[in-house]
């Protein structure tokens, strides 16, 4: 049996529109763009929005093509990061649909709409690699924001991050996620499986 | 290096500053601010975009200034050269098939930027487009009108159909992709744009070149045309002029005290120089050469040092 192959899109949700609160408008631009997402943004809601966008763009045909295996693997509103799984053949369609999105889905009719930009920062064949990339980016973002804000506070943060190393951060991310990663689906060793997986 | 060669310049600086900051955040390195000219050119052509800008753009961005002229009447383009000199980049926006043909064949510009969100009653012919590409002019695809679904998605439909038509006509060569984002929401990252182009039928490689290398070649060629000699040679760095070392007080005193003598020395040197520079006849040259050879031979026979290596291996020099 040949396994179904996937692609994992690591996604940043950016908020380019100016803040409505004047006290937040004085923050540096980087921090404003990487604003935390609203708490009512759930993986189900995001998946629904993506599927809607796909059917607007490509109609029933596209929706049918991409529906298989389309899944939100990870969504962290705090860092506005998401990992989306989709089938390998049609990941470009999903990506293009993300590019065309300009609004976050609304949780209820009365919630206020937020405009956003979805930026795909990494496409990988395994969820592990996109996870590592997410951690690396989050680290860099914090360092950059600190540097923009003050400049002197960076050393302390650097020391803390170096002290614990990447492994601990990975654990933190794992605990934070709403459900555990399905480790069976990790596709680290494609070649090995190709050799042994013809049962 | 990623290039976005079309960000419309607007007088509302708060919005523009935000767009530039967002472009830098998304990973662009070079951004061109665009000024649109739709009516007749004024008598005195000046650059409409102030430089430096009245606000602080992000330091990682290189800013260029570009002008786009709408072409409908073929007779209006008498002063393109003066306009080109005022801006870093000059783009043409043909509105009719005739003006498109003219822009492809004769007019001197850097970019042909067709408004792809409109429907045209003609299609892009390979021969015409290839002529322009051969002359080094690039075609521009502006993606922003398709991102925001204004007028019920009609603009997006036209954009996709025109873009695929343009990709077909150019065979993917000589294309650049830029945003033309009037609103900040329409700016997308370079990787996202490349993927969009992929979906439209431009290969991944060509797409990456369209936001990178092709755009860079436009910028470099345009600069060479404006500053270089006949568009071929340009001086990037000519070295610095040697700075005369400041004369210290001591040296100053010395020269002052030796002033009388120095004059004589200089004079004598000059006389000697004059004697030396007098042309030497061939016979005299030969004579001198022979004498020099003899001298050398004598020196070797007479007291040339002989190098010997003693038993310990240490090298010693003994004179014979």
From TrEMBL, chain A:
One of its GO terms (biological process) is tRNA 5'-leader removal. Its EC number is 3.1.26.5. The keyword tRNA processing applies. It comes from the Eukaryota. Its main location: nucleus. Keywords: Hydrolase, Nucleus, tRNA processing. It is found in: Nucleus. It catalyses: Endonucleolytic cleavage of RNA, removing 5'-extranucleotides from tRNA precursor. The keyword tRNA processing applies. One of its GO terms (cellular component) is nucleolus. GO terms for molecular function: ribonuclease P activity; ribonuclease P RNA binding. Component of ribonuclease P, a protein complex that generates mature tRNA molecules by cleaving their 5'-ends. Also a component of RNase MRP, which cleaves pre-rRNA sequences. Belongs to the eukaryotic/archaeal RNase P protein component 2 family. This is Ribonuclease P/MRP protein subunit POP5. It comes from Heterodermia speciosa.
From TrEMBL, chain B:
The keyword 4Fe-4S does not apply. GO terms for molecular function: RNA binding. Residues 256-265 have a biased composition (Basic residues). It is found in: Nucleus. Residues 246-320 are annotated as: Disordered. GO terms for biological process: tRNA processing. Pfam families: RNase_P_p30. InterPro entries: Pol/histidinol_Pase-like, RNase_P_p30. This is Uncharacterized protein.
């Amino acid at each position: 049996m040949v396994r179904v192959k996937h692609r994992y899109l690591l996604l940043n949700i950016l908020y380019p529109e100016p803040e409505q609160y004047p006290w937040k408008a004085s923050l540096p631009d980087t921090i404003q763009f990487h604003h935390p997402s609203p708490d009512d943004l759930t993986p189900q809601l995001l998946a629904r929005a993506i599927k809607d966008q796909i059917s607007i763009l490509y109609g029933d045909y596209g929706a049918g093509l991409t529906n298989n295996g389309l899944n939100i693997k990870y969504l962290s509103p705090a860092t506005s990061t998401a990992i989306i799984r989709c089938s390998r053949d049609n990941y470009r369609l999903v990506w293009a649909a993300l590019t065309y999105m300009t609004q976050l889905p609304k949780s209820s009719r009365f919630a206020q709409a937020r405009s956003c930009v979805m930026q795909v920062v990494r496409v990988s064949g395994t969820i592990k690699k996109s996870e590592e990339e997410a951690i690396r980016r989050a680290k860099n973002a914090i360092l950059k924001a600190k540097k923009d804000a003050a400049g002197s506070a960076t050393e302390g943060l650097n020391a803390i991050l170096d002290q614990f190393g990447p492994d601990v951060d990975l654990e933190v991310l794992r605990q934070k996620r709403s459900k555990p990663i399905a480790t069976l689906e990790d596709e680290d060793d494609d070649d090995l499986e190709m050799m042994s997986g013809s049962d | 290096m990623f290039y976005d060669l079309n960000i419309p310049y607007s007088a509302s600086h708060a919005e523009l500053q935000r767009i530039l900051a967002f472009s830098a955040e998304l990973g662009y390195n070079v951004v061109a601010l665009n000024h649109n000219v739709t009516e007749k050119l004024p008598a005195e052509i000046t650059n409409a975009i102030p430089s430096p800008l009245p606000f602080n753009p992000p330091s990682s961005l290189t800013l260029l200034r570009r002008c786009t002229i709408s072409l409908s009447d073929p007779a209006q383009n008498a002063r393109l050269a003066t306009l080109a000199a005022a801006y870093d980049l000059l783009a043409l926006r043909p509105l009719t098939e005739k003006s498109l043909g003219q822009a492809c064949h004769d007019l001197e510009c850097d970019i042909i930027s067709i408004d792809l969100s409109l429907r045209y009653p003609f299609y892009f012919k390979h021969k015409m487009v290839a002529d322009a590409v051969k002359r080094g002019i690039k075609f521009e695809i502006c993606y922003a009108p398709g991102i925001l679904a204004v007028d019920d998605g009609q603009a997006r439909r036209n954009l996709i159909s025109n873009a695929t038509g343009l990709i077909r006509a150019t065979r993917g060569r000589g294309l650049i992709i830029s945003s033309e984002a009037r609103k900040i929401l329409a700016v997308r990252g370079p990787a996202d744009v490349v993927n969009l182009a992929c979906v439209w039928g431009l290969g991944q490689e060509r797409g990456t070149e369209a936001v990178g290398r092709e755009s860079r070649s436009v910028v470099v060629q345009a600069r060479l045309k404006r500053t270089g000699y006949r568009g071929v040679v340009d001086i990037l760095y000519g070295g610095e002029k040697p700075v005369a070392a400041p004369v210290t007080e001591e040296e100053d005193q010395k020269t002052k005290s030796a002033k009388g003598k120095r004059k004589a020395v200089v004079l004598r040197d000059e006389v000697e120089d004059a004697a030396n520079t007098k042309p030497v006849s061939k016979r005299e040259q030969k004579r001198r050469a022979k004498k020099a050879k003899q001298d050398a031979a004598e020196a070797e026979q007479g007291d040339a040092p002989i190098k010997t290596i003693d038993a310990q291996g240490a090298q010693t020099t003994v004179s014979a």
